C-alpha cells in the first residue's frame, strides 16, 4: 500500500471524559460528506481484554503502573491503524484523552504525532468547564450503577476528575479549540468543517508536537 497524504482527512479530538467528544464524533459522522471512521477510545477499549482496561483510557495520576508498559504500544497500534485507514482514503475522526501524567512521562502524544507525519491532521482541543462535566456525570449515572466517583459537599469535584481537567490539555498545542458548554455538538462539528475548508494551519499542531522531546 502506498500512503497518499492527500487521500483522506484526519480529525483528532482531545479532551477529558464527558467533555462532549463522542457527541461531536456522531455529528461529524452524520453530517460530513463521505465515510468518517471513528477510531476513538471507546471503540478501542471495546477490543481490549478486560484485565488490561482502561487501556488507553488510563486516567492521569500514575495509579496503574502495571498497565503503563502496555499503553504506549496500544496508542502506537491505534495511530498506525489511523494511518492505514487514511492511506486507503477513509476519513478518520478519533476521540481521545491524551495526557502524560503517568508514574513517569511516556511521551505518547509526540510519538503518535510522528506516526501521522505523512497525513494532514486537524488536532482539536475539546474544552468544557468542570462544573458542566460534573453535571453530565450526574445525568449519566442516574438510574444505573456506574464506576463514577460521586461528588460530595466536602469534595464537590473528585480528585481524579480534576486531574483529567488539569492534565489532558498539556501542552495545549491545538489547531483549533471548541467549548462544548457554549456550542452544541453540531455547532462544534460545523466549526471543525469550517476550519477544514480554510485549511490546517502551518505548521500544524501535530507537526509542532512531533518535534517535541
Automatic annotation (TrEMBL):
Membrane-spanning intervals of the chain: none
Single GO molecular function: ATP binding
Binding site for ATP: 15-22
Key word Transferase present: yes
Residues annotated as catalytic: 42
Keywords: Transferase
Classification via SUPFAM superfamilies: P-loop containing nucleoside triphosphate hydrolases
InterPro entries: CPT, P-loop_NTPase
Keyword Transferase: yes
EC annotation from Swiss-Prot or TrEMBL: 2.7.1.-
Protein name: Chloramphenicol 3-O phosphotransferase
Organism of origin: Rhizobium fabae
Upper lineage: Bacteria, Pseudomonadati, Pseudomonadota, Alphaproteobacteria, Hyphomicrobiales
Amino acid at each position: 500500500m502506498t500512503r497518499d497524504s492527500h487521500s483522506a482527512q484526519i480529525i483528532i479530538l482531545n479532551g477529558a471524559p464527558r467533555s462532549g467528544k463522542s457527541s461531536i464524533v456522531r455529528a461529524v459522522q452524520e453530517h460530513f460528506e463521505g465515510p468518517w471512521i471513528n477510531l476513538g477510545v471507546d471503540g478501542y477499549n471495546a477490543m481490549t481484554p478486560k484485565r488490561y482496561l482502561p487501556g488507553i483510557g488510563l486516567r492521569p495520576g500514575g495509579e496503574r503502573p502495571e498497565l503503563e508498559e502496555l499503553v504506549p504500544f496500544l496508542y502506537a497500534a491505534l495511530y498506525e491503524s489511523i494511518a492505514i485507514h487514511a492511506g486507503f482514503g477513509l476519513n478518520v475522526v478519533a476521540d481521545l484523552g491524551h495526557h502524560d501524567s503517568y508514574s513517569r512521562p511516556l511521551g505518547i502524544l509526540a510519538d503518535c504525532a510522528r506516526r501521522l507525519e505523512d497525513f494532514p491532521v486537524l488536532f482539536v482541543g475539546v474544552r468544557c468547564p468542570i462544573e458542566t462535566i460534573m453535571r453530565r456525570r450526574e445525568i449519566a449515572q442516574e438510574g444505573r450503577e456506574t464506576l463514577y466517583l460521586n461528588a460530595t459537599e466536602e469534595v464537590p469535584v473528585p480528585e481524579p476528575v480534576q486531574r483529567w481537567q488539569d492534565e489532558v490539555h498539556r501542552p495545549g498545542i491545538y489547531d483549533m479549540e471548541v467549548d462544548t458548554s457554549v456550542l452544541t455538538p453540531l455547532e462544534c462539528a460545523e466549526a471543525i468543517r469550517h476550519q477544514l475548508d480554510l485549511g490546517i494551519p502551518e505548521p500544524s499542531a501535530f507537526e509542532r508536537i512531533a518535534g517535541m522531546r
